[in-house]
Each structure stands twice: as C-alpha cells, then as structure tokens.
UniProtKB/TrEMBL annotation:
The keyword Lyase does not apply. It comes from Rhodococcus daqingensis. Residues 5-59 form the Maltose/galactoside acetyltransferase domain. GO terms for molecular function: acyltransferase activity. SUPFAM superfamilies: Trimeric LpxA-like enzymes. It comes from the Bacteria. The lineage of its organism: Bacteria, Bacillati, Actinomycetota, Actinomycetes, Mycobacteriales. The keyword Repeat applies. This is Acetyltransferase.
Length: 186
C-alpha cells in the first residue's frame, strides 16, 4: 500500500490524484465495465465479477447494473441484500451493508469529504473520507443519498429522495432533505 492509500484508510487528508490510487480506480473500472456490460441471463458471471470486485458479498445478495464504485475492495455486503439499478458507492472509506438490505434505484452511498475552508488544499486535490454503515434489514428508497460518516440502524426505512447527513437510529422511518426521523417503527 502507498502512503496516500494508508492516509485515505485512516480518514486523514490524502491526494486523490495519487498515481497508485488512480491505478486502483482504473482496475476497478475495468471490472465494472465488464459487470455493467453483462446480459440479463448472465447471473453467474455477474456474481463472479462482484466476488472479484468487492471486499465481500454474502450469499443471496445481488446488484443490478449499472453499478459504480471507486475501489470495490472497501465494500462489504451481507447476505440476501439487493442494490437496484444505478447504485453509486464511493468507497474511499469502508462501506458496510448489512443482511437483508434493500437499496432502491439511483441510491448513492458517499464517503469522500473535501476541505471546505481550505480552498488551496481543495484546489490541490486533497480530500478525506469517512465510512458509511447500513444496518440489517434496512430499506433505502429510490434516489437516497447517504453522506460520509453516517450509520443507519437496523430495521430502518429511509424515504425516497432523502439526503441522510447524520446517523439514523434503528427501527424508524426517516425522510427528507435533510433526512429526519418521522416516526418509530414497531
């Protein structure tokens, strides 16, 4: 591992244009190109490619093309989970998706952060990253955006189009921009 990748994984500022990180992203993109070009009946090829791409994917889980991520290796998905069309998982930090999770179309799980007040650092391509954790039996509606550093608790439902900027507790329905708890779930 290179210095910039180490810094990225520690949540420190790192240069996203580091040549080793760029090479890793390109290797990931080559696998994604193959995955996204699979035919409707090529389930076993899709699973093989996901097995090579992701950190881990549990039994009975699947992802529909078109799927995008940065590195792949920082994504772990539990058993019996489903990511619908056009999922974007920016895995500059670990993304953990639990068991029995349903993620709607065009959802985004984002881990990258950019310096807000240090304009020169941003101009020089410095960034950091914070992990995203999705608990067991969570349902993210279509178009949900989960921001860096967020954890969503078990058995929670996030309404379509929500922007989740902070942690959401277990067993609630939450929605909106910014996302907020609407009610408890039994």
């Amino acid at each position: 591992m290179g210095e910039q990748r180490d810094r990225m994984l520690l949540g420190e500022l790192y240069r996203d244009n580091d040549e080793d990180l760029v090479a890793e992203r390109k290797a990931c993109q080559r696998l994604l190109d193959r995955f996204n070009a699979t035919g409707a009946d090529e389930d076993s090829l899709r699973l093989d490619l996901l097995g090579r791409l992701l950190g881990s994917i549990g039994e009975g889980s699947w992802i529909m093309p078109r799927f995008q991520c940065d590195y792949g290796s920082l994504i772990t998905i539990g058993t019996n989970s489903f990511l619908n069309y056009d999922a974007i998982l920016m895995d500059c930090a670990p993304i953990t998706i639990g068991n029995d999770v349903s993620i709607g179309p065009r959802a985004q799980l984002l881990t990258a952060l950019h310096p807000m007040s240090d304009h020169e650092a941003r101009r020089q391509r410095w960034e950091s990253a914070a992990p995203v954790v999705i608990g067991d039996n969570v349902w993210l509606g279509g178009g949900v955006i989960v921001c860096p550093g967020v954890t969503i608790g078990d058995d929670t439902v996030i309404g379509a189009g929500s922007v989740v900027t902070k942690d959401v507790p277990p067993r609630v329905f939450a929605a909106g921009n910014p996302c907020r708890v609407i009610r408890d779930l039994p």
